[in-house]
Amino acid sequence: MSPLARIILVGAILGASAAARAESLGTIGPTYPIAEQHLLDHIMAKLREKERSGELKQLQEQAQARATQSVRSPKPVPGLRRADTARTYYFDPSFTLDRNVVDENGQVLFPAGLRKNPLDVVSLSKHLLFFDARDPRQVQRARELIDTYQGRVKPILVGGSYLDLMKAWNRQVFYDQEGALVRKLGITAVPAIVSQEGNRLRIDEVVVK
Fold it and tell me: Compositional bias (Polar residues) spans (predicted)?
């Protein structure tokens, strides 16, 4: 075979190989032109559409109503019951440091492992009274306890509207958000009143008649 023939043959083989690699595999599913809308434009268009239809105003009013309701009557603390028998027990608030407490210069102020009782430093100035304002009998009992202790009581709700009670009683009322305090103190029934006795806290779960 002449040199020219060999060149032509090699060129044909290479061309056939390239054509094979570029072979079309067909179309899988429908195809569309690339014309993606900017995300912000898409969001704004949706908002304008909802505003024109009145849906946006309705959503805003619903969100405002939910927020108002959550403030007026927060989610009640789960797992609590009305006290049907009196129970008294004590809680030791002492804690042990799990790490060193240092100052700005790195000097150790309190070493890890140190056990401290906050009641050795500060005192409970008022009794803590936990109750559910959704229960009229508990509200009445709480009012009686406040009068018994001559107002030296901090009312703390585990259910109901603290705003409504503040207006009715004309005094500050608190709420145990997510039950952090009752869980810490081991309270399972309300009303319950917490008092300080020495370096311990006394918890009395009070029967509602």
Answer: 59-72
